[in-house]
Write a structure and sequence with these properties.
Elements: E1 2-7, H1 22-30, E2 36-38, E3 44-46, E4 52-57, E5 61-67, E6 72-78, H2 85-88, H3 94-101, H4 106-120, E7 139-145, E8 148-154, E9 162-164
Parallel strand pairs: 1-9
Antiparallel strand pairs: 1-5, 2-3, 4-5, 6-8, 7-8
C-alpha cells in the first residue's frame, strides 16, 4: 500500500471548480494515467484499473492511499482534537470510550472509525456508536506523522505501508 502526504494542498486547487472535485482533480493531475469516479455511495474508484484508492484531508494536508490488494479507507485529522462529550459521545462504542479514558487520543479513535466507514462505503451515520473501531474484524493501522493522526483500513491484516511525503505537484 502506498500513502502520499501532500502539504498545503489547497494552494494547488482551482477555487472555481466545485469543492467536491478538488481532491479528485489534484490526484488525477499527480497521477496522470488514472481517472477517478465515485460509486453510488460516493466511494472513489479508479476507472479500468485493479488498484484501489481512498483519501482524506485536513485544511493543510491531503493524504492519499493506493492499494493493489483490495479495498481501503483512510482518514487524517490533526493529532489533537479536544474530546467534547456533548458533541461526540453519540459516535463512540463503549470500548472506544474506555480507550479514551485510558489516554488514547480522540483523533486516533475518530480516524480509525472514519477509515472503516470509508472502507465499507457506509460513511458517517446515526449508528456509529455500534461500530467498534478496535474490533478484530477490521484491519486498521493507525500512526502519527507531523502532528497528524492517520488511520488506514484494508482488506488484509498484513499490509506493508510505503509513505511518500513532500510530494510536489
Amino acid at each position: 500500500m502506498e500513502i502520499y502526504i501532500i502539504e498545503d494542498w489547497k494552494s494547488k486547487i482551482n477555487i472555481n471548480e466545485p469543492k467536491e472535485n478538488w481532491a479528485t482533480n489534484i490526484i488525477e493531475r499527480m497521477f496522470d494515467r488514472i481517472q477517478i469516479k465515485k460509486d453510488a455511495r460516493g466511494k472513489p474508484y479508479i476507472v479500468n484499473e485493479d488498484k484501489f484508492i481512498n483519501w482524506g484531508h485536513t485544511d493543510r494536508f491531503l493524504v492519499i492511499a493506493f492499494s493493489e490488494l483490495g479495498h481501503i479507507g483512510i482518514d487524517v485529522e490533526a493529532n489533537y482534537i479536544p474530546y467534547d462529550e456533548s458533541l461526540y459521545s453519540w459516535i463512540l462504542h463503549e470500548q472506544e470510550k474506555n480507550k479514551l479514558d485510558r489516554g488514547t487520543l480522540f483523533s486516533e479513535i475518530w480516524t480509525r472509525k472514519e477509515a472503516i466507514l470509508k472502507f465499507t462505503g457506509e460513511g458517517i451515520n446515526d449508528n456509529m456508536h455500534d461500530l467498534n473501531s478496535y474490533a478484530n474484524e477490521y484491519n486498521v493501522i493507525s500512526f502519527s506523522f507531523n502532528d497528524l493522526s492517520i488511520s488506514v483500513c484494508s482488506e488484509y491484516r498484513s499490509v506493508s505501508l510505503k509513505l511518500y511525503t513532500s510530494v510536489v505537484l
